[in-house]
Amino acid sequence: MSTELSEVFLSSASVIAGFMTLVWVVSLWRKDASVVDVAWGLGFVLISWTSFGVSQHASLLLPLLTTLWGVRLSGYLAWRNHGKEEDYRYREMRDHWGAAFPWVSLVTVFALQGFVMWVVSLPIQAGIATEAPPMIWLAILGTAVWATGVFFEAVGDWQLAHFRATRADENAVLDRGLWRYTRHPNYFGDFLVWWGLYLVALAHGAPWWTAVGPAAMSVFLMKVSGVTLLEKSLSQKKPGYADYVARTNAFFPGMPQEK
Description:
Number of helices: 11
Distance between the termini: 55 Å
Shape: globular
Keywords: Membrane, Transmembrane, Transmembrane helix
Structural class: mainly alpha
Protein name: 3-oxo-5-alpha-steroid 4-dehydrogenase
Pfam family, one: DUF1295
Radius of gyration: 19 Å
GO cellular component, one term: membrane
Order of helices and strands: HHHHHHHHHHH
Strand content: under 5%
InterPro entries: UstE-like
């Protein structure tokens, strides 16, 4: 590993540790750990520009793509969460841990998400810090995959927000637009965003092993905090969700199986 790459990794780790500590302090002031969700996208933006600032020969493509994605996501989550109570996941933790929750949340919510953020962003950091002539065709391919992901994520979020604002039945299930082809177009979009950024990073000389970043994100989206966690909640809350599951792909888009 080059000296510059090591310096970028260490600088990003230090900056994200400070950033997540600050977000934790804000959560104590607001008595709402949900602020960590809003900080998620902005953390990647901070990592990308930290890497750019440390590197001596960085391309603007990776930090720009990361910024467009991260600012949109954090802006959407800030708008969605405005005026609402703390997310049920953190309320349950708060009830369980009582007075110890602030310190427990520092480790299990804020520090953990900061570490995951650092690992997932390894391709961005390495792609910015590695000095190599870019492979233009691979950069174009990666940008196209990234753009497709942003489309699925942004349009999926908009369709869901519009559906929630206009539905007459609280238990109704969104099965139109992108949601007709995948039960989680926003998660699928996020999946494409990170593999697209990985391809762009490879095009700029990032080592192949930084695939651990998008691979980790893929596991989280499909098996840990994304689809699996949300599906369990929705199946319990919405009577018609089982029918939706029977005819619609969980993650990768496909034509619905009409009865």
